[in-house]
Amino acid sequence: MRARDWLRTPAGAAALSFLFPGLGLVPIGRTRRALLVALPAIVLTALALAVLLLNRRAISQSVFSEGAVLGFVALNLALILYRVWAIVDSYQAAAATAPAEGEAFVSYLDRRPPATPRKTGRALDRANAAVLAAAIVAAAGTHLAVATVGVQYRDSLSCIFNEDAPCWFGSGNLEPGETAPPVVTEDTPMPDQTLPPYVAVETFHPSMAIPSIEITPGPETADGIPIFPIENAGGPNTPPEQWRDDGFLNLLLVGADSGVGRWSLRPDTMILLQVEISSGRAAMYGIPRNLENVPLPPESANAFPCHCFPYPNLLNGLWRDAVNRPSAYPYPGSDFVRGFKALEGAIGQYLGLHVDGTVLVNLMGFVTLIDALGGLDINVPTALKDSRYPRPQDGKMVSISIPAGQQHMDGYTALAYARSRHQDSDYGRMGRQQAVLMALRAQLNPCELLPRVTDLINALGSTFWTDMPIEDAAALAGLAQKVGTGNVKNLPLVPSVTDNPVGFLTIPRWMIVRDIVAHGLDDVPPSSSGDGGGGGGFSC
User: Fold this and answer.
1) Structural domain of 413
2) Confidence band (pLDDT; 50, 70, 90) for 216?
3) Spatial contact of 529 and 509, defined as CB atoms under 8 Å apart
4) What is the pTM of this model?
């Protein structure tokens, strides 16, 4: 049987209409009906092409609209009925015009379909029926799979942009009488027992020689902690109306874990990402988790007499204190959100800028995300060994050894590389964490990630949470395209006299830090292309 003749069989008609609705009617001469059947598909295809060519902004906005995603799911469910009907219609039309037993095939150009259907055994032929069933299953299965991915994506969006707390955390509010318990493990650092009663007032620029810090005695609390001035340096009491208005996006990236069965969590990784909107130039400031006496913004300055988060507290304990004391930290939102608003305000006050929002990364979700990506490719400049690394899933101490050189890491290895601190210090791992982020950014190529889209979508919802509004997600994604590995400066704020002389952590020399931040984007090249000047882009 010639290929053209096979296309006129019921099986051939069903197969053609699987490829495009109504196409199976053309070989049997039913062109007018083919156009009518294909009309909905033609209209949808034309609309999709028009939007793609003329209004790509609408696509990016709809990607982050739960309503649009649900509409996409509903459309796919409706397309199941439409495509199944088109396949069956072509099959039946071809069966009605099929030649009887022993009758030769006639070219469809020379043949007109009979007025009444022919009764022939071919209409019930098992091979034709098998092709029909396969076409129906394939069409319905394709759209059902797409609809399922759409539902999963919508659920992930709901978790990421949940206004109270991420789905993996649970309720964002404490029960009456409940308090957030501390998260303390064996490797929790102990602060120094001495506290010098002074503040540093001299500014510093990285290009200058290391300055002679001027020490100015100031008033102290009963515990010997200096009283910080209440000022509008960068707290959320004076934010721009929109995060774009001041020309910068200042986003706090937080990596946190929580113990099994605990309500509380501990934000051990804190990085302030600053992006100049017009150019895509960016800087990442590593914030030490063990900062003491961090100044507080006006809205929470009276939480303590020193107008700071005082010793023996460390900065990574501020979230919990704000959760437990709503009257001292009068921020709107759930208990969970209030903790991060307090952290944003304190870090903004410390750095001298307004923090626009937080992106929280669940460390166990990070493992799932890396595995969903197929692993992380990263260059390890110095071998890492740690004989007392606490596993995140159960806290059990294990030994890890990561050799120097180009490595391909699974999720647990990448997390261990970013979390381990016993070989060097908190400050050493700050640099590794920033390197992991840059390596992750370099791998974000949607064309290569498409085969893993289902795993990635599920991983996103269990990994990330943000208090940025979902309405701004499209704009943030567009800005992310400008930020790549070639236009980001890494600035860990460590107490080193040879790198960034931030000074003693017990009395944060915030004026020095603010000057470093003020010049943080110096010498950073602007984005030269859509992929951020060197990173993996967000388009093929």
Assistant:
1) 365-457
2) very low
3) no
4) 0.78
